[in-house]
Amino acid sequence: MTIQRRFMYISRLAVAATAFAVFSPMAAHAQYSSPIHDVDNAARQPVHFDVTIPVNSNDSFGGIFLPQNVPAGKRLVIEEVTGNISLPSGQRLIDANLITVTGGKGGIAHHIRFDPPVPGGPGSSGDYTMTTVSGRFYADPGTSVQILIVRNDVAGSWSGHLTISGYLVNLP
């Protein structure tokens, strides 16, 4: 056997051995991973509020504060607002707001868009409208969150219900 043939034979054996080591199910390889850790997930304390918006007949607006202020040392993060409003037939909402204090600035109005009213609906003798709004709305510690809804007329009675969900986060 010539030196060239020996070299080719040895190199082919080396390639075959490497392929066996790489593709063999029995081959042991060190595995490295990058652990994923959501650093603020453990700090989240889920909350939700179910509120009925008290409105008087012959008023064009209704409003309510959430049942409790944001606790000291925590920030409220609202991620979703869902709800419905029953209106007298032919009426519509002019405006709907979630009002917070964020970064020490009060009266920040986050507009809530409602669907166009449709005739009838669960428990409605008039028109009915719904909403689902996702986002992130923040409220500072010690503050309260207000909901304000305005319709285009004062005649007749109306009612509303909202569910607000999110979480509290501990502040440093």
Structure description:
There is one protein chain. 12% of the residues lie in helices and 46% in strands. The protein is mainly beta and 172 residues long. The chain folds into 2 domains: 30 residues; 126 residues, Sandwich (Jelly Rolls). The protein has a 5-stranded antiparallel sheet, with no helix packed on it. Strands 2-8-4-5 form a 4-stranded antiparallel sheet, with no helix packed on it. The protein is elongated, with a radius of gyration of 31 Å. The mean pLDDT is 81.
Mean pLDDT: 81
Looking at CATH, which topology of the largest domain would you report?
Jelly Rolls
Largest beta sheet: what is the strand line-up?
A: 1-9-3-7-6
State Rg. 31 Å
Structure class: mainly beta
Can you tell me the overall shape? elongated
Helix content: 10-25%
Q: Enumerate how many helices there are, as a single number.
A: 1
Please give the CATH architecture of the largest domain: Sandwich
How many β-strands, per DSSP?
A: 9
- Structurally, how many domains make up the residues? 2
Q: What is the terminal-to-terminal distance?
A: 78 Å
**Largest sheet properties:** 5 strands, antiparallel
N-to-C series of helices and strands: HEEEEEEEEE
The parts where pLDDT drops under 50 for at least 5 residues are none
CATH class of the largest domain: Mainly Beta
Tell me what portion of residues adopts beta-strand conformation. Answer: over 45%
